[in-house]
Amino acid sequence: MKKLLILPLIVFAISGCNSSDSKKSSLNEGFDKQSKSKIDENIKKIHLLGTNFEWQNEPVEKKSWQEAIDYCQGNGMRLPTSREFFAILDTNRSIDEVFPSNIKEFWTSDSYDNDRAWKISTWTTTQTYRNKSSKLGVRCLKNGKLDTHTYEKKDNKIIDTNENTAQEKIWQDLAENGTNKLTFEQAQNYCKSYDMRLPTLFELEEFLDASPNYVKKGDFLSYWSSTPLPTDKNSVMSVDFTNGAVLFSDKKENNHIRCVKIVDKKAPVIYLNGDKNITIDQNQNYTELGAYAIDETDGNVSVQISGSVDITKAGVYTITYTAKDSANNISTLTRSVRVKDITKPDLTLIGSNPQIVRIHQKYEEYGAKAVDDKDGNISEKIIIDSSEVNISKVGDYNVTYTVSDSSNNSS
Question: Which residues of 307-335 are buried (b: 16+ CB within 10 A; e: fewer)?
Fold first, then answer.
């Protein structure tokens, strides 16, 4: 704090201020939503989010199977596998929504035997085999790869682990009842009774391709998927576990069932309202800003808050936030609350301000008074600097008053 001295009338002007900190609260937003596929018209490729595949946008004239392989390789790409094709088919129901084309049948790189290879119908989303000499559509791709899965038989179930995401699925092990057949509606209800569901077409193809040891062999074992036929609301895609063919079946037909269930292993994500580290003045009321949590499976879940703050005692306190989803996955997050004396002493001058003194007249110091909200009266700690004052010369001079409390807050 300063006092201004003016000569020939010596004037002491005192200036001082207390500053207050402003606090900002921020609210974290939830998850960003992305569409599953997008078209980049500039490079004429399709990007399927999550796989990083780059698909050829415009199909080429029909070719034989070997010609198709050679064509893709000659253009720095490759002919897709059946599973890669179904990654798009299952995402978009009808691939024509993404790949508008008059060509409806395309080669895959999967060979059925020496003379035949698998082909995909993008209109009916079915998979059957054709002679390799047949002329079919070609749509190449490059980059990207599908996730890798491992399978383990445990407690009459098959544990399906995605090595890329660590997500687990539980499949029914149907070695003892794999011959049961039901309609589509009955199959859905059957799976629900076990708190499971029918797999998608892509999941069935993935399971069949990666776990041959767990597939019951037999005569035309057709299994229901949950993926509807794009062109007929009364039909659903099915998979022949004997040879891997993808067909469609009327919902009233009877097919085999293999239910699946995703094991939720991912804990909710907690978001704090306000900053993670905050400081409050000692004896200032602490207002809990709270938090919220979002779970990928359950959506919004409740957050439990534990911990306390003693506003009368300086120190650092921890508030803990805990969220649990329906699968008992638990996550925690903490906030640090520092209680600290951050209020400056109140410094008041004694006497008038400005103070007027005649030239050559003795300057009399009236002093000041300092009161701190924690330490009380600390006037004896005031340091006065009047070294600038020269009573022999007309002018304006400053006298500075400084005081600090026990927490080193200065005025």
Answer: eebebeeeeebebebbbbbeeebebebbb
In a shared domain, residues 129 and 55: yes
Q: What is the pLDDT of residue 330?
A: 93
CB count, 10 Å around CB of 289? 16
Q: Which of 202-216, 267-281, 356-370 has the highest mean pLDDT?
A: 267-281
Q: Examine the pLDDT at 33 and tell me if it is beyond 50.
A: no
Q: Residue 200: what pLDDT?
A: 85
User: What is the domain-level CATH number for residue 119?
Assistant: 3.10.100.10
User: Residue 298 has what pLDDT?
Assistant: 80
Q: How many separate domains does the chain show?
A: 4
pLDDT tens digits along 163-174: 555 567 788 776
Burial class (CB in 10 A: 0-12, 13-18, 19+), 148: exposed
Among 4-8, 146-150, 213-217, 229-233, top mean pLDDT goes to: 229-233
The answer to whether position 95 is within a domain reads yes
Domain membership of residue 320 as a residue range: 269-340
Same-domain status, 83 and 128:
yes
Examine the domain organization and report whether 183 and 254 are in the same domain: yes
42 lies in the same domain as 105: yes
